[in-house]
Each structure stands twice: as C-alpha cells, then as structure tokens.
Design brief:
- This protein is α/β, with parallel strands linked by helices and 506 residues long.
- It is 33% helix and 26% strand.
- It contains 17 helices and 24 strands.
- It has a 6-stranded mixed sheet, with helices on both faces. A 6-stranded mixed sheet has the order 18-21-22-15-23-24, sandwiched between helices.
- The longest helix is centred in the middle third of the chain and has 16 residues.
- 43% of the residues are buried.
Length: 506
C-alpha cells in the first residue's frame, strides 16, 4: 500500500518556542519537527540555542511560551520535566560522560534501576538485558570491568545503552562524536542507521558539518536563539549550510601561513617517556606553527604535556632559546614563556567554579601586585577586560561564571590567559575540539596573529585539513615515534595518511 497519502505523526513538534532566562531570551520563536525514522541535525554556532532547545524537549528547561507536542500529544509545560519526558520515550546522550568510573559497564547501565529477585539484585537478568542491548546496537564492549579501563568510544556506547534501556522513540545525540576518532564515529553512524530502521527519531547536534551530510536526513539551523531555516540535507550543500549558520560566506577558511620565521625558540632532543613516546626530536622557530599528527594512542597529548612539565620523561632534553632547561612542573614551563591549551578545556583548561576575570588572570597573578604584597584587583579587572575584548568574547560581565559560556567562548578564555601572560610558546592540543565553524575561524585567525607577533605554536589536531591549512611543518607520530616530517609539496593528505598507518610515503 502506498504511504504517500498517509499522514505520519511527528515524534516531536515545537512551534513558536520562546525560552527566557533572567535578562536573556535564549530562544525566540523557534520551530522544530522530528519525524519517525529520521536523523535531524540541529546546527548553529556556539550559543545559538541548540542545547537549550534540546533541554526543552527533555523537560530540563520549561518553555516560557510556545507549543510542544510529543507523538502528537500537546504537552502541559508547567508539569513537564525530565522524568515525564522519559516516560514519553525521550532520551538524551551527552558528550560529557555521566558514568561512575569505578563501576562496571553493567552497573552503570542499570544504576538506580536494578532488577531484584527475592530481595537481591538479579545480576543474571541484568547481564542478559545488557547483552541484548549490545546485540541490538551490534557492538562488543566488555561490560564487566570498571568503565575507567575502557576506551572513550566504548564508554560512549555504554552511555547510549543507558539511553536505550527504556526503549525510547526519540534520542538526542548532543555532540556525541566530539571526543571520538574517525573509525568510532563511523560506528556511531552505523548505530544511527540501526535505530532509524526501527522508527526511532534522532536529534543530532554537532559542530562537524561533514557529519551532518554523512548521517542526517534533515536539518534545522538556529542563530542567536532564532529559527533560521529547516530542510532536507540532500537539498543543500556545505557552503550553503555554513552561510546559514554564520550569516555570511566563509571564504579563505585558513589565513595565510607566516613565512617570516625567526630563530629556533624551542627544541626537543631525544625526549622519551615510557609507554608514551620515544626519541622525539622537534624544532620550532619564532613565528612558526608546527603540527603534530597521529592516531589515538600515538603519544601526541603526552608529548605536549611532557614539554609543559606535566608528564614524566626518562631521557632527552628540552632547550628554550638554545639553552637546556629542566622542566619538572607547569609552573617552571610558564616562567620559561610556555602556555598550554589542553584537549579537555573544561577539566584541564579552566576552573569551572571561577568567573571570567579570575580564569583570565590566573597565570599572571604575580604580575598584579601592589607594593609586592597585595593583589591589585583593579589592575586585574582592567587587563582581563582588555584582553577579552580583543578576543571578541561574547559575555555580559567579567563576573559571569565560565560554565555558562559556549565552548568557543570558553576556548577563547583559555587562549586569552596565555596572551595576557605574554606567552612566547603556545602548546595547542586540539584547540578547535567541540566548537562551531565560526568559532573555529576565529581561533585560526588568532593563531595567525600569534605568529605575526613572532610567537611559536605547536598544534596537535586530529583534522588533517586543519594541520595542512595552518602549519609550516607537520611531524607525524606513529606508535610513539616520529615517522616523518612533512612540509612544502609533501604536505598533503595522502602522505600524512600513509604515515598515520605506518607506511612511509614519498
């Protein structure tokens, strides 16, 4: 029978949604529709309102005004909460882990919802149900070890299993792939296909627009809390989607690479750390961006952490401006003119309980003293204001908690604190992870500005296009060792991919 004339009820239907917080209208007349068996991308810059809208769907936020229907039923907003949304078949899987790291996978999946038999937890039944969930997703994960021993991708699978426990009909993937490698992302796409075949609707939130074209059927674009447009992914191209998201054409994504290089400012000789990397030799000049490429486990993060004095080495030396230095702590590295932008900005780059001002001045507090004793808070405030204005930070007060900022703005503060310190060597570990296309462009421009000021940059990135577009030279790590150094005509995706796989290509 033809289904063309058969009316299908949307799983989620939102009309004219307004969401107001004190002094802020986070969503303004937003519309959104999710159909059964559809993967619907929700895209926009950081702060566009994507997470706010998803929280309206899950009941974590209560819409100020507008209409919300779940499976055709009009929802009474004041009584709608997370528990109610779960009963109606709505689930969410977050980018940030909500797992108990010392508990096993099975324990995490059923925590708070253990099945009991004769007053005791029925582990046999729980194990059977957990195996069914893994079979449903066609995944193999060891569910009987503490999740802290599992790979990031395996932990994400456990989070997804938790979400599937109540047989939801709507699942929100909130930046689920931000911390995953390419092969694990492909596995998520496969799981999405399985879920779609069963009629489950998926809201897919991601800053990686290539993923939208790889796995999504429809899209909705938000900008500054306002609804911009919706449509079918097949009817739009990459540039058209970018233009909707940032309100303009994105030309020259990567600024010109600085070729006016100075002296060698940082040199690493035969640096070795057990089970991480060995015999690493790297040179970085003033005004130069040097890239570090490598697959997961190649030793990239451990290397920049070691240079910064935060990972123990057993052999080799570091030279700053030609002089050997002993760096046993980040404090020593900072005094030598280094600054680290870590891959986990929320846990390692910022103090989430602090405000913008305090996070900005932390590395430079010794420079704001009155009479060499008292902290000059007025001078701190002035300096924090000036540097964050220079960074085009979107904020309303220096006393705003950084937790309330978008990922792109949080990253700007991590970089701003080192600029305020007048850092000479920037160690950037995946600085564009989890931020939107517009914020990425701003980070790229910042890196270019740093090189014009004769600052040196070491850039770690899993994105080859990013490394090729920003770096003068790229070192490729393979199983903890440098397999190749590419520059000039050899700085191509083909050469780098072959090296990542352990095949030295000319």
């Amino acid at each position: 029978m033809s289904t063309e004339n058969k009316k299908v009820t949307p799983l989620i239907e939102i009309k004219n949604c307004v969401m107001e917080f004190p002094g802020v209208k986070a969503l303004d007349q937003v519309n959104f529709t999710l159909m059964p068996g559809e993967c619907h991308a929700l895209v926009g810059e950081n702060g566009a309102g994507k997470s706010t809208l998803s929280k309206c769907i899950t009941g974590e936020n209560q819409m100020t005004s507008g209409e919300l229907r779940v499976k055709g039923e009009l929802i009474k907003i004041p009584s709608y909460n997370v528990r109610e949304s779960q009963k109606r078949g709505v689930a969410i899987v977050h980018q940030e882990f909500t797992l108990m790291e010392d508990m096993t996978g099975v324990e995490n999946i059923f925590v708070g919802r253990y099945l009991k038999k004769n007053g005791h937890i029925d582990w046999k039944a729980l194990n059977k149900r957990a195996e069914e969930l893994m079979e449903y997703m066609q995944c193999e994960v060891n569910l009987h070890v503490a999740v802290k021993h599992l790979r990031t991708a395996e932990q994400q699978i456990i989070q997804l299993a938790k979400a599937l426990l109540d047989d939801p009909q709507v699942i929100i993937f909130d930046e689920l792939t931000a911390v995953l490698q390419e092969k694990d992302i492909q596995n998520i796409f496969r799981i999405i296909s399985v879920l779609k075949e069963k009629g489950i609707g998926i809201v897919y939130i991601s800053h990686r627009l290539d993923e939208v074209f790889a796995c999504c059927d429809s899209y909705t674009v938000l900008c500054d809390g306002k609804y911009i447009n919706s449509g079918k992914v097949k009817d739009i191209d990459y540039n058209g989607l970018v233009k909707m998201i940032i309100g303009r054409e994105l030309e020259n994504v990567y600024p010109p690479i600085n070729e006016n290089l100075g002296d060698i400012i940082l040199e690493v000789r035969n640096l070795t750390a057990p089970k991480a990397f060995r015999n690493i030799n790297i040179k970085v000049r003033e005004g130069e961006v040097v890239g570090i490429a490598g697959l997961l486990g190649a030793g990239k993060t451990e290397l920049v952490q070691a240079i910064f004095g935060n990972h123990k080495i057993v052999d080799g030396e570091v030279l700053v401006k030609g002089k050997p230095v002993k760096i046993k702590s980040p404090q020593q590295a900072i005094k030598l003119g280094m600054g680290l932008v870590p891959d986990e900005r929320r846990t390692l780059g910022l103090v989430m309980k602090f405000d913008i001002k305090d996070n900005t001045v932390i590395p430079s507090m010794d420079r704001f003293k009155k009479f060499g004793i008292f902290q000059d808070h007025q001078a701190e405030m002035k300096a924090a204001y000036e540097i964050n204005e220079k960074m085009n930070l979107a904020y309303h007060s220096l006393w705003q908690n950084v937790k309330k900022l978008s990922g792109g703005n949080q990253q700007k503060i991590v970089i701003a604190k080192w600029m305020l310190r007048d850092t000479e060597i920037f160690l950037l570990d995946e600085p564009t992870r989890g931020i939107d296309i517009g914020a990425k462009f701003e980070i790229y421009s910042l890196i270019h500005e740093l090189t014009k000021q004769k600052k040196a940059v070491i850039l770690v990135s899993p994105e080859m296009e990013e490394l090729i577009g920003l770096c003068n030279r790229i070192y490729v790590l393979y199983e903890g060792a440098i397999l190749d150094e590419v520059e000039g005509e050899r700085k191509t995706q083909e050469v780098i991919i072959n090296n990542l796989l352990g095949v030295n290509a000319e």
